[in-house]
Amino acid sequence: MYSPADPTATALLVDDDRIAWLGPAADAPTADTVVDLDGALVTPAFVDAHVHTTSTGLTLRGLDLAGTRSAAEVLERVSAFAATLPPDAVVLGHGWDESRWPSPVPPAPGELDRAAAGRPVYLSRADVHSAVVSSALLSRVNADRPGHGADGWLRRDAHHDARTVALASVSAAQRGDAQRAFLAYAAALGIAAVHECAGPVISSEEDLTGLLKLTGGPAVYGYWGELGAAAKARDLGAVGAGGDLFADGAFGSHTAHLRKPYLDRDTSGHGYLTPAQVADHLVDCQRHGVQGGFHAIGDAALSTVLAGFAMAAARTSVDAVRAARHRVEHAELLDKALIGGLVEFGIVASVQPAFDRLWGGAGAMYATRLGAERALATNPFGAMAGVGVALAFGSDSPVTPLDPWGAVRAAASHHNPVQRLGVRQAFAAHTRGGWRAVGDDAHGVLAPGAPATFALWRDAGPLVRGLPAMDAATPACAGTVLRGVPIHGEVGALR
Ligand SMILES: [Zn+2]
């Protein structure tokens, strides 16, 4: 059992939603129900602090076209899959790769119409940078858009438009199904809570309110990414007006806002907000009793955001700003002074260790875009943790897959050795850190009196200071419990 209260504990007693006791099994008090954990490792459950539920769920529920060997086979699979869907559903599929086919021509719009019995069809290629679509979707994409193809194979802007239309055509029932699929998948990975980053551009009000109504899975904390919309966020049931409230874009598309230009293109990206807008938003959030937050990736965007924090502190007080526990999402490129700003205003850094795993290191995306020196300064987890910035780990799923142990491992083996976290520190950022990020300071640790939220792990292998060795196989989640209620696996007998 991974417990700072009693590292020798092998049993715990759950009473209602709390841990009533933990210690050696031989000393266990009597209980109404006894569950033999059969040597499973028990740890606090994970929290994923940045997810997009519906788009991930649609992928989980979508048609998997990986391994198809011809356009004909794609059409057969579309036909069989569409037959399982309501007549008004959109057929979403992914993973075809025509470069491996004897005849490298993907299905045409008319063929997709027939296979899906008239339902709209969107099938993304394996690399997700293009898609083939049915006639109905094709007719809704402007033929002048870059990347448009009359053969129904859409790239670049035309592809983004088609994806937006396809996702907007998802019915309420299909959306609910996707959300439930996502939550069940998260629970099965030992995740007991997620922070949904919703917003008017990236999802919708109905999407968020529908999600917040679902019960029986991980706890969902909503963030609504709209400027000056603290009252709306609160009315929608969100805990914050933030998340993907964009102060800039992303490095991959050269839109993250930089102080100095990109190495591989003559631009410094784009800042979408001014310090005054940031300040107004934060004051609005504090007035309405919700957290504020911003998506800020580049150093110029973070500088704008922190200038806004200083203005908000001047108009209210530093203590009021700190007490609101605002957040910044991603925070990928920042120096010591910017990190100092996070500390000064008590800002939670919601960060994604998988970004360093995917894009850090020599020859990878950060180095290509920023050059070696700035690439080394990205995702400075060690520097942030070292001066007391509260870190909350997340995946940004579907940008990177839900993989909490992978995130712990990525933070512990950062490409820049100086920025590595200890395994226990990284684990805390993915458990306790996520609860702290929503203002729940008691959660995320196994101790008497704490909420009974934990996960059971099989095949955890040899433990190092209480946690699985990072070079061993990923442990399998055998059960997940949220506030005393089983949400996955072998712990049904607890209730
Ligand atoms: Zn996001």
UniProtKB/TrEMBL annotation:
Pfam families: Amidohydro_3 (PF07969)
Gene3D superfamilies, A to Z: 3.10.310.70, Metal-dependent hydrolases (3.20.20.140), Urease, subunit C, domain 1 (2.30.40.10)
Transmembrane segments annotated in the record for this chain: none
GO molecular function, one term: hydrolase activity, acting on carbon-nitrogen (but not peptide) bonds
Annotated ranges, domain Amidohydrolase: 34-487
Listed name of the protein: Amidohydrolase
